[in-house]
Amino acid sequence: MSAATSPLVASGTSRGLRGKSVRSRIGDIAGNYWVGRIVKAILTIYLVVTLTFFLVRLMPGNPVESFILNLVQTQGLTYPQAQAQAASLFSFDVNAPLWQQYVDYLGNLIHGNLGVSIVSTGTPVSVMILQYLPWTLFSVGLALLISFVLGITLGILMAYRRDTLPDHVLSTIAAFISGVPNYLLAILIVVFLGIRLHLVPFTAMRGSLSPGVSPNLSLQFIGDALFHASLPITVYVLTTVGGWMLLMKSNTTSTLGEDYVLVARARGLRDGRITAAYVGRNAMLPLISALAISVGFIVGGSTVIEQIFVYQGIGWILGSAIVSLDYTVMQGIFLILTISVVVSNLLADLLYGKLDPRVRIAGSQ
Amino acid sequence: MMLGTRRNAFSRSGASDASVPADVVLSVRQLSVAYVTRRGPVQAVRDVSFDLHGGESLALIGESGSGKTTLGMAINRLLGSSAQITTGEVLYQRQGKVTNILTLNKEQLRRFHWQECAIVFQSALNSLNPVLRVADQFVDTARAHGQHDRGQIEQRASHLLRLVQLDPGRVLHAYPHELSGGMRQRVLLALGLLLEPQVLVLDEPTTALDILTQRVIIETLRQLKQELRFSMIFISHDLSLAAELADRVATMYAGRIIELGSVRDIFYHTRHPYTLGLLQSVPPLRGTLEDLRSIPGSPPDLITLPSGCKFHPRCPLAGPECAQEDPPAFVVGDEHTSACLRWQEVRSPRGEEAAIGEPSRVMHSARTPRAEEAAS
Ligand SMILES: Nc1ncnc2c1ncn2[C@@H]1O[C@H](COP(=O)(O)OP(=O)(O)OP(=O)(O)O)[C@@H](O)[C@H]1O
Ligand code: SF4
Ligand SMILES: [Mg+2]
C-alpha cells in the first residue's frame, strides 16, 4: 500500500490513532476490492467451463457416444476399443459417472491439459490454441487500437466542430456504419470488392500468412501478416469506430462545458494542453469500461469474420471445430474466449483506476 | 517573488491610442454584451463604464441575473460563442502602455490571461481538473507563461498556499477531490496569484461556503490585498462582504451599473433606490427576519426590457417621467454617480449625517434601529 494514496488521511496527525485506523481501513477495503474482482473473474471462468462441459454432454445424441459409434463404424474397432480411444482423446474416462468426468476434466484443466482434438487426431487442443490464438490476438488487438484511437480523435474533432458540416457528415456516417453487422460487411467486401470488382485479391489474402513466409522479425513477415489481417481488421474497425466516435463526441461535448476547461482557458493554457489533458483525458475515462465490452464483442465476432475471410485465427478454428463436431477443441476455445473477455474486463478496471484518481485506491497501486 | 522576467504580453497590434489616467489599470468603456438566444438577444451587460485603479478593490453588487458574471467574463473575453460584445472597449494599462483587450489576437489574449488578469470563478468546486494533482495545475499554469523550472514553481506555489493558510505538504500533491470546498477555493486563490497579475477578478468566491470558511477567505483576501497590492474586482450579491473588502462599490441592475461610488457614499449617501433596496435586504445579524425587506417584484426580462428606467416597475420612488426616460449616469457627488432621475430624493436609511466609521461596523449598528422598531 502506498502512503501517497491519501495525503489527507496520512497527514491526519491531529487525529492521532483514529487517523491511522482510518488509513488502514481504506487499505483493507482496497485490498478486498481487488481480491473481490479477481475472485469474480475466476468464478465467471469456472461457470463458463462448467456450462460448456455439461452443454456438450447434454446435447441431443451425446457427442461422445456418437463419436464412439463413429469410430466403430468407420475404423472397424470394437466398441471397448473405440471407448478406450475416446477416453484418451477426451482425457476422461467415458465409462465413469458424469460427476467423475467433470472432476477429472477440471483437474486436467488446472494442469493446462485441454484434451486432444478429435478430428486432427493426436494434436493437443492447447497446441492448436497456441498456434491459432496469436493471429486473432494480433488482428483483434490491432483493430481495437486503431478503432479506439481513430474514434477518439474523430469524436473530439466532432465535438470541437459540432453543428458544422464535417460534424453532421461524420455523425451520419458513424451512426450508419455502427448499425451494420460485421458479418454483413465482411460478405459485402468479399462479394463486391472481391468477386465483382476485383479490387481486393481476397483469395490471396486467405490464411494468416502467405506460403513460404515464416514468423520472424523481418519486414517481409510483418508486411505479410498485415496483408493477410487487413480484411478482418478493416471490418472490425469499420463496424466499431462509429460507436467510439459518437460516444467520444458526446463525452467531449459535456466535458467542454465543465468549469475546469473554462478555467484552463482563463489560465492561459495552450489549446493543445487543454485538449489533451483537460478535455481529452476526462472525456475518455468512461470509454475505458466500454473498451472491455468491445473486446468481448470483437472476439465473439471474430468467429464469423475469420470464417468469411478464411483468416486462420482462433475463430476460424472454432468454426471448423463446430462443423466437424470437434468437441474438445470447441470446449478449449470457449474457455480461451471466456478468459480473454474476463481478463480484458479486469485490465480495463485496472486502467480506469490508473487514469481516474477518484477511483484510485491503495490496493491498485 | 517574480519567477524569471515578465514578458510583455502584447505586441503592437493590441496597442490602443486611447488615453487612460496613469493610475488606472483597467478601464471599461461603454461595454455591452448580448447573448444570442432563440427568443432574441439577452442584453446581459448594457453600456457599462468604470475605471479600476492600481491597488484598488471594486465590488460589483447586484441581484442574481444582473450581469455580474457576464461582465467579469467579458473583461477577460472568456464568454462562449453565444455571447457577443456589441459595443465598447476594455483598456488595460501596464507601465504606461495601453492595450484594448477586445482587439488582442488569440495568442496575445492567451498571454494576457492569468499573467495580467486572473479570474476566480463562481463555482470553484469544479474549477480544477479532477485528474491532475494540485501541483501539476500550478506547473501547467506557469509553463503556459514561459516558466519551466518545476522546483521554482512548486516553491512559489507552496509560498502562496501558505499565504492562503493551507499546508502545502498536504495540498500540493493532493487531487482536487481530496480537498474540501473551502480548501479548493483557497487553492484557486493561490493559483490566481501565481503569476502576480495586476488584476484579480473574484466571482462570488464565498457563496458556496459556510459562514466560518467565508470569514477565513475574506480575512485572507484582505491580508493578501495589503501584501501583494493587486487590483481586485470582487463580485458578490452580499453588500456586507463588499463593505469589508472594497474601496468602491458598483451596483448593477439589468446589466447596467446604476450606482458607483466609494463604500462610504454607497452606504451613507445612497443615491439610487435600487442600492437602497439592496442595503435593506441584507439579512439581519441581530434583528429578526421581519427586518429583512426584499425589493418587491423581480428583475426584468433582459430580452424585453421595460421602457425608461429599467427599475421603474419595482421602484418605490418612480414617477411618470421614469417610464419615459432612461436616466443617464448623474454625477451626484465626488466620484459618485447614480442613474436615477430622482436621486436627490433618495435618503439613505442611515441618515445623511450618520457617524462615519468602518462601514461594516456601522452597517451592523445601522440595523439596530430597525431591530428596535421591530422589538417595540
Ligand atoms: N449562456 C447564456 N445564454 C443566454 N443567456 C445567458 C447566458 N448566460 C447568462 N445569461 C443571462 O444573462 C444574464 C446575466 O447573467 P450573469 O450570469 O451574468 O448574472 P450574475 O449577475 O452573475 O448572476 P448570479 O448572481 O446568479 O451569478 C441572466 O439573465 C442570464 O439568464
Ligand atoms: S429613475 Fe425613477 S424609477 Fe428609476 S430608480 Fe430613479 S426614481 Fe426609480
Ligand atoms: Mg454570477
Average residue-wise pLDDT of chain A? 80
The beta-strand count of chain A equals: 0
What is the number of beta strands of chain B? 12
| End-to-end C-alpha gap of chain A | 7 Å
Mind telling me the CATH superfamily name of the largest domain in chain A? MetI-like
CATH architecture of the largest domain in chain A: Orthogonal Bundle
In the predicted model, the low-confidence regions of chain A spanning at least 5 consecutive residues are 1-23
Question: How would you portray this structure in words?
Answer:
The complex is a heterodimer of chains A (365) and B (376). By secondary structure, chain A is an all-alpha fold. Chain A has 2 domains: 62-113, no CATH class; 125-364, MetI-like fold (Orthogonal Bundle), CATH 1.10.3720. Chain A is 75% helix and 0% strand. Chain A is built from 13 helices and no strands. Chain A has helices at 7-10, 17-58, 63-75, 79-90, 98-110, 125-160, 165-177, 182-196, 219-256, 259-266, 271-309, 314-323, 327-355. Chain A is globular. The termini of chain A are close together. The model of chain A is unreliable at 1-23 (pLDDT under 50). Chain B has 376 residues and is of the alpha/beta class. In chain B, helix 3 (134-144) packs across helix 4 and helix 4 crosses helix 6 (181-193). Chain B has 2 domains: 15-237, 3-Layer(aba) Sandwich (Rossmann fold); 261-375, no CATH class. In chain B, the strands form 2 sheets. Chain B has an 8-stranded mixed sheet, with helices on both faces. A 4-stranded antiparallel sheet of chain B has the order 2-1-4-5. In chain B, 30% of the residues lie in helices and 23% in strands. Chain B has 11 helices and 12 strands. In chain B, a hairpin with a 2-residue loop joins strand 11 (330-333) and strand 12. The model of chain B is unreliable at 1-9 and 353-376 (pLDDT under 50). Chain A binds chain B through residues 4, 6-8, 11, 258-260, 262-270, 273, 277-278, 281-282, 285, 355-358, and chain B through 76, 78, 110-115, 118-119, 121, 123, 125-133, 140-141, 144-145, 167, 169-171, 173-175, 177-179, 188, 191. Iron/sulfur cluster (SF4) is lined by residues 273, 309, 311-312, 315, 317-318, 322, 327, 340-342 of chain B.
